[in-house]
Amino acid sequence: MNGIIFALRSAVEDFGRNKLRTLLTSLGILIGVSSVVLLMAFGLGLKKYIENQFASLGTNLLRIVPGKILEGGSFRAGGPASLGGIKFDIKDVQSLEKISQVEYVLPVFSKSTTVDIGKRSELADIYASSADIFKGLNLKAAYGQIFTKSDVDKHAKIVVIGPKIAKKLFMYEDSAIGKNIKVEGQNFRIIGVLKAKGGGFGGPDLDSFLYMPYTTAMVFNPEKTFIALVVKTTDNANVAQIKKDINNRLLRRYNEDNFSVIQQEELLSAIGQIFSIMNLVLVSIAAISLVVGGVGIMNIMYVTVTERIKEIGIRRAIGATKRDILTQFMTEAVALSLFGGIMGLTISFLIVLGVQRFFPAYIDTMTITIALVVSSVIGIVFGVLPAKRAADLSPIDSIRYE
Amino acid sequence: MIHLANVSKDYLTDTDSVFSALKEVSLTIKRGECISIVGPSGSGKSTLMHIIGLLDKPTKGTVSIEGKNIAHLSDDELSKLRSQFVGFVFQQFNLINKLTILENVMLPALYARKALPFEAKSRAMELLTRFGIADKAKSYPNKISGGQQQRTAIARALMNNPKLILADEPTGNLDSKTGKEIMRLLTSLNKKESLTVIIVTHDPTIASRTKKKIHIRDGRLV
């Protein structure tokens, strides 16, 4: 142990004398470690972001969509089976509402369209459902109010809009209240603007939708069908049983392959799987630069050994064993590599800190451990050959070496 | 203490012919002797010194240290025996330039793993004080004079309390006054502490300061 501490001190002193060389040699490891760490940090951040997005959509939700999407816990190979083959209608909503422990069923119709205000025209998405949609998706009015069940029953020509589209149309969110907009020639009165929800990162952008009663939206929806149903169960409900009941009821009208009943967690784990695979591929590519860094260390260690043949001879003459010399040079290689690893980690921390305002990247203890272990292992793997060369030098030849 | 019997050492030269540096050398060195090995350059005296100093093994013949044949020792065992039995003093001083004087002197004790670092440090300081260079403990070798460097090397050689001091042209890089001082120091170690001292030299006046002289020429004792 003393030997290693002694070798470590001598290595650190040596680095002090060769600052530029040490820096350049560990640069390879620095770049490798920081690219691996950053990719892992961004991967973790992306996963967390998606989880948060799903969590913000509310819990205890089951989604019923056309087509078979999942198979054995991951996305079905070759894409969903018969996607869009069927559409749901109001009969399905009524049928599913009869299942016990189901709080409500949201029909969802959505359509991309243009909104006219005066002579201006903006692209927007209609998101039509029942009044419970605001509860189900955790949406609250920032200005004005949300529509109610009686608005839905009356086919009221009103609309609640997201804050993003409100800003686009009126500059100030609160000035939208009471204004009329034209959607495909039909007049709608804005009764509310929602609080910002965030999102739009690949997922649905809840802040850009025009929310209207599904009954009113039937004018844009002559078939009177829905692209999805969202079932909200009561708290502590037996979700597995409800899923089974939903399946049974839908099977009376549709084929098994024509629809999916998806629990939030299932979707989340399926997406998580894709991200894990993608991240693994990226990290493996980044790891190649670690190998390049390791070769750099090996190269400089060979140079160091050649430069210090005389020193090795002296050490051997005064009692150093082959093992002592091996330890000394291995320690140096590991210290060099670990130094690069720690620098890489530090830089990654700074970058992650810098982007945290825009993206929830983060470095967990697992990533830190991997970075430190991997850089030590690289030092060992690429240091062993030069160190062995040093240890195998003959004492007399080395002490005579000038 | 040291016994060489019919020791030969052959080297392969670049032209693949065999060069015999030592030819059937037999000699016995007793405890407490002060001996010089004298010979011109190329006579084989360095090879003889390397074999006595356990840095090299003979091609033929046997070397025994305190009755033990070294032929059967592994590289590690040889390193260990070397660190405890013999202390080297070189013509070029051979100090490690990036270590301080104190660290250079301590090094053999750290490799021997017999003393804790603080024990090694106090023993090293003791030796430096004895040789009048304690004030240079924190200096680096290239900042002190040749005489001081050679004193450091002698202190380093004594660090593990060896039985034998092996000095290879110890005065070769020093002026004659400093050379005399170093010789006085080496012979006094022999007299006062009954250490066995072997001095390898080509210089007859240096050799004349030891009681016993071994002459070597063309790999043979004469």
From TrEMBL, chain A:
Stretches assigned to the MacB-like periplasmic core domain: 22-248
Keywords: Cell membrane, Membrane, Transmembrane, Transmembrane helix
InterPro entries assigned: ABC3_permease_C, MacB_PCD, Macrolide_Exporter_MacB
Source domain of life: Bacteria
Xref: Pfam families: FtsX (PF02687), MacB_PCD (PF12704)
Keyword Nucleus tagged: no
Domain ABC3 transporter permease C-terminal: from-to ranges: 284-395
Protein location: Cell membrane
Membrane topology: Multi-pass membrane protein
Annotated GO CC locations: plasma membrane
Bilayer-crossing regions: 23-46, 277-305, 333-355, 361-385
GO MF entries: transmembrane transporter activity
UniProt xrefs under PANTHER family: ABC TRANSPORTER PERMEASE YTRF, MEMBRANE COMPONENT OF TRANSPORTER-RELATED
Stated family: Belongs to the ABC-4 integral membrane protein family.
Record's protein name: ABC transporter, permease protein
Source organism per UniProt: Candidatus Gottesmanbacteria bacterium GW2011_GWA1_47_8
Taxonomic lineage from the root: Bacteria, Candidatus Gottesmaniibacteriota
From TrEMBL, chain B:
CDD domains: ABC_MJ0796_LolCDE_FtsE
GO cellular component, one term: membrane protein complex
Alphabetical UniProt keywords: ATP-binding, Nucleotide-binding, Transport
One Pfam assignment: ABC_tran
Segments traversing the membrane: none
Organism encoding this protein: Candidatus Gottesmanbacteria bacterium GW2011_GWA1_47_8
MF terms (GO), sorted A to Z: ATP binding; ATP hydrolysis activity; transmembrane transporter activity
Name of the featured protein: ABC transporter related protein
Stretches assigned to the ABC transporter domain: 2-222
Superkingdom of the source species: Bacteria
Family under the similarity heading: Belongs to the ABC transporter superfamily.
Lineage: Bacteria, Candidatus Gottesmaniibacteriota
Gene3D superfamilies linked to this entry: P-loop containing nucleotide triphosphate hydrolases
